[in-house]
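re: that complex we talked abt at group meeting.

here r the seqs, copy pasted straight from the sheet so there may be weird spacing, ignore it
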Amino acid sequence: MGKDKLFGLIDLDWRFELTKFKLIRVLFKSRWFPLLLILFNLFIFVVILLSAFLGGYSAGNYNFGIMLVWILWWVLLMLVLVPVFSRTWCMMCPFPIFGDWFQRRRLFGVTQGKLAGLNLKWPKFLKNMWIMNIGFLITTFFSGFFTVRPLATFILLGGIILLAFVLGLIFEKRSFCLYVCPVSGFQGLYSQFAASEIRRKDPEICRKHTLKTCYLGNEKGYGCPWLLLPFSFEKNTYCGMCLECFKTCPHDNMGFFLRPPGVDILQDTKREPRRIDEAYKAFIMLGIALMFYSVFQGPWGVLKDMVRATTMKGYLTYISAHALFSLVILPGIFLLFSWLSRIFSGNKDVPLKKIFVSFSYTLIPLGLGVWIGFSFGIILPNGSYILHIISDPFAWGWNVLGTANFPWTPVFTGLLGYLQGATLIVFYLFSLALGFRISKQIYPEKSQAQRGWIPILVFLTLITLIFLWLFIG
Amino acid sequence: MKKIFIISLIVIAVLSFSLLVYKGVKQARGIPTVVKEKKMPIVEVPFVNNHIDLSSGIGRQFWDMRPATKIELIYQLMVIPWPKASVPYVKVKSFHNKEDIYFYLEWPDDTQDSGADIKNFSDAGAVMFPLGKKVVTQSLMMGFLGKANIWHWKANQDREYWLGKSTEAKVYVDFYYPFEEQELFAVSKEKFDSAVNDLVAIRVGTITRKPIQNIKGRGTYNKGIWRVVFKRTLKAEDAEVDAEFAFGKKLCAFAIWNGSKGDRGGRKSISNWVDLRIR
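got the structure back, here u go
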């Protein structure tokens, strides 16, 4: 039997280990890495919080906090970090560092024994993405303020840091990152598509290594702060790339690999099954993308007024419609197409829930493509503001880098729609390629899979056409 | 003990952040600044049994014995064009003799600008009285929130009225039409009955000379000081357009133009509201 190749070109089992290069391996095993990245980002976020706090009434485009978070950081996250390097943001994120420091009782090095804090177990019924799903959706209700009111950004980021610290005092390890952080949820979902992964290299070595130091920790590092089993996990979704397993593995059996995009989407094992909370994450992210594009980059002023809460009635209408669309209408339509899939397949033995949940993973590439398109719409028109704010971060009239007077210069905005459209089509093709493979996993016979795939293909095509219309008009 | 410590830590962290948010919300529309409200200057208008005949001068010896109120002036910045320099203060004196009310204004000015030309502007001074019973004092702009009566003394007008020296020969058509006297129906040339214009305004850009001019006035310039006296009957002729001076408190404001600095029209130095105490 031949190898399964994506688009007939890329072997899905292909891997290229980056940690085979000594420099990268040494870096990953050093305790300074990623600590230095975290400290650098901590400094940046201190400036962000200060500028957002002191920014008062300043316009969003001339505020360091707003521009760095919602223009630079967000775009880097969606354009590069998540699609290529998986959850590398989590690797360098400074939000949970205060909780880590408290638990470990030290800024650097390894504390042996029990960590400080109450170390409670996270409640079992909340060990899923639902808090992140709802939390992120609620956060988007205030998106009209985050991008124009510096203080709103301060409250959001400060609130996240505070929550990370408080939960770090109460619950074990990185429970906050795993189950609460609103940024973590969508990174986890879309990192399934990422073109890189951290995995154990040789399962046999892990099997023979009975003292699972990657989970328990040793003098070189901590047991997985994300409460994963590094010796066996198969999906990027919950790996925060903290690199502790590289440090604790005595056999150098952890590796950082390049891989074909999207292979995690095809993973559906007993230990890491496809789940309805992750499915809903995909719907919510797609719903938010549609709403965000319509509001922030669309031509409808009435929507902008609603999001900015010009009137309370308009604002409540917006958040109600937004929540209803993401939580009920979009999943409801998808459920209808899933039901049609079962009808078309002719196999009534497959549970509808399985069809619904499994096919919802086809929205991961498409959703990521939409968000990348949206991110182009953020950075190309607004990127030039960054030159201004890095020279004058507190709007005190500084000109640190000599770019404070750089004028607003939109870049390639004439091609923006086509760039967005082309990106969308590429990711649509990934959705189709992976989606049909999912169909073959759902239905036992190929003919059933082919027929059952048709309604989902129609759904994905319709969604793509809607976004193409929005992007190109 | 450990639980208490962690709970205390959580409470401190949450309270600290809440305090920051509270401060942030308070300052979200700019950092509040505390501006100490200045006391409104008071100009006493007592009864003095005196009469000044302006045709023989401003009565300098009498005024020199009267107490003055020094009133700070600031740039007029409410409408453009803004002035290029400010006159720092005006000293004000006043009295009434039950028939007439007098105001004496004195301010420093390095140059005497009593002419008017294309690029030369006349020095001037004015006093404004809000009209009506419900006076809204938020704005000093002439008649911005209500009707105002303005007494506007101009140095060039003073020279023309008292000394008979006209500036017409030097000026151009857009200021004074040089052939006015030869026209059959003169339309732009005002014949002055006084060195002071008696004006009314009800909002921006509405300043108008009253049909009946009630104010007399005269100014003198000596060693860098302008001294100007305004005179009017204590009783208003028409309460609709003339300031009334009942006993008690009344608001007024002052404006000074420095012609050599380009002041004219809205380019002027102005005072805040001033309290008149008429006794």
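couple things i noticed - Residues 295-473 of chain A form one domain. Residues 312-345 of chain A form the longest helix (34 residues).
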